[in-house]
Amino acid sequence: MFQRPKQLSLELGSPPPSTFENFFVAANREPVQRLRDLPAALAQERASDRLIYLWGEAGSGRTHLLHAVCDAALQAGMRCRYLSPHHALADFIFDPDCQLYTVDDVELLDEARQIAVFSLYNEVRAYARTALVVGGAAAPRAMAVREDLRTRLGWGLVYQLAPLSDEDKMAALLQAARERGLQLSPEIAHWLVTRHYRDMPSLMALLDALDTYSLERKRAVTLPLLREMFAEFRD
C-alpha cells in the first residue's frame, strides 16, 4: 500500500460544489429523493416531513447532501442556511424568512449551539413553511449530545446513510469522468480508490487534478501518467 503523498491535499484545491447531480446514490435512494423533493414541497406548502435527521460514518455523504439540498433550495429561490460547529451562535437563531436550515456535525456542537439547535427544532416544527435537516455521526439514541436535543433528533424522519463500497466509488469516479469528457479506464479508477484517498470529495478533487494534469501535458490518462503526477506531488 502506497503512503498518501504529504503535499497532495495542497495541490488538489477545492472540490467541486456538492449537488444532487454529482452525488452517487447507490443504496441511499430514499433519503436522496426525500431531500430532492423537499424544496418543491416547501414552496407548495405541502411538506409533511419537515424534520429530517441523516446519520452515517465519515464519508457516507452527509455533508454533501446537506449542501445539495441547500443548493436545490437556493435554485428554487428560497433562503437557506447551512450551519456547522464553526458558525457563530447568532447564525443559529430562527428567522421565519429562511425556509430551510441544515445543521452539520451536530455531535460536535458546543452546549450553547446544541441549545440553539433544540430551539430550531421547536421553531421549525411550529412554523409550517420551514424545514430542518440535521446530520450526525450516529443514530439519535447513540448521540453524545444533550438529552433534550437527542429526543428532538428522533422527532422526524431518520435515515442512516449507507457508505459507498469500493465498487460504488469506482463507478462514481467513472460516471464523473464521463461527465467531464475524460476517458478513464476501470483500472485507473481501481488504482485511485485502493491506493490513496478513500472519501468521495477527495477522490473527486483528485479526478479534477488528474484531468488538468493530462490536459497540460497533452497526454491521455494512463497509469504511467497517474504515477508521474503522484511522483511530482511528492517531490
UniProtKB/TrEMBL annotation:
Domain Hda lid per the UniProt entry, residue ranges? 166-229
Instruction: Show the InterPro entries listed in the entry.
Output: Hda, Hda_lid, P-loop_NTPase
Coiled coil segments of this chain = none
- A Pfam match is Hda_lid
Matching SUPFAM superfamilies = P-loop containing nucleoside triphosphate hydrolases
The protein's name in its UniProt record: DnaA regulatory inactivator Hda
**Could you read off the lineage of the organism from its UniProt record?**
Bacteria, Pseudomonadati, Pseudomonadota, Betaproteobacteria, Burkholderiales
